[in-house]
């Protein structure tokens, strides 16, 4: 009987469950080693930190991201002043490099005008793009001044259409941006990207890589190449996609230009590893074709006896007359 009571008591104890909230009975997630360090699951109602505006003007967020924005803007503004030396040396008779220099300034002016209007609302709202607006505005003013000087120094009287281009096209870009009314910003950004990239391609064509190693120009090309990829260090910056792509392309162009500047030095450095190199001499210029000399034959002296014996046209041949010794001949008059 006692054994039956003990067994009944154990059965009651096992059948009793602890009382708790419904959430306590839900299965808990277990941590797995392959999930450690992964990003948290996306929340359906989480707000985008960059907002819904295509050109956000949010703060940089961290001190490092803000430093990247300020540094990139300062470098971009400083590089716009580099062509001053080239513009001051322009003359009326322009060459191939001078032509590319003028188009670099012209296309760059239109690109800076569009980028300034593209980011102009950030000038009031502030944020990470504020310094980009200031740099683009400074670049537009600098290019406008340099373009005016370059046009005045290289304009030929009559038939030069560059004066009209330098006035009409920038005004057209302003009207084009105003027509969009800040609604098609992505479209405006791609147009500005096209102007900026074309401008830097012309700038690369305006350099004389064999004319001499200019330390300042080479340093500017190297700094511009690094500046184009600074945004990779802060991918969380809320900037437009078009402007970042524009910076990357310009960084590639600047890097290629730096390679062209260092190309002669790189070749000489590689020659040291190749050993002794015999450089083939340049072929000698071909001698001009000379016509073969024609031998000049002097005419033979006439035979007096043959002429005397020759028959006369009007009569028979005249025999030689013997002159006596005592007869003096009269000298010819």
Q: What descriptors fit this protein?
A:
single chain; 333 residues; mainly alpha; 55% helix; 0% strand; disordered N terminus
Tell how many strands the DSSP assignment holds.
Answer: 0
Q: What is the tally of helical segments?
A: 11
Please compute the radius of gyration using only Cα atoms. 46 Å
How far apart are the termini?
Answer: 194 Å
**Which of globular, elongated, flat, extended, rod-shaped describes the shape?**
elongated
Overall pLDDT metric: 74
User: Which H/E pattern describes the elements?
Assistant: HHHHHHHHHHH
Q: How would you sum up the major sheet?
A: none
- What structural class results from the helix and strand content? mainly alpha
Our estimate of the beta-strand percent is under 5%
In the predicted model, the low-confidence regions spanning at least 5 consecutive residues are 1-49
How much helix is in the residues? 40-55%
What order do the helices and strands come in, and which of them pair?
Blueprint: H1 2-15, H2 63-79, H3 84-88, H4 96-118, H5 121-125, H6 130-154, H7 162-180, H8 185-205, H9 215-227, H10 241-274, H11 304-309
Helix pairs in contact: 2-6, 2-9, 4-6, 4-7, 4-8, 8-10, 9-10
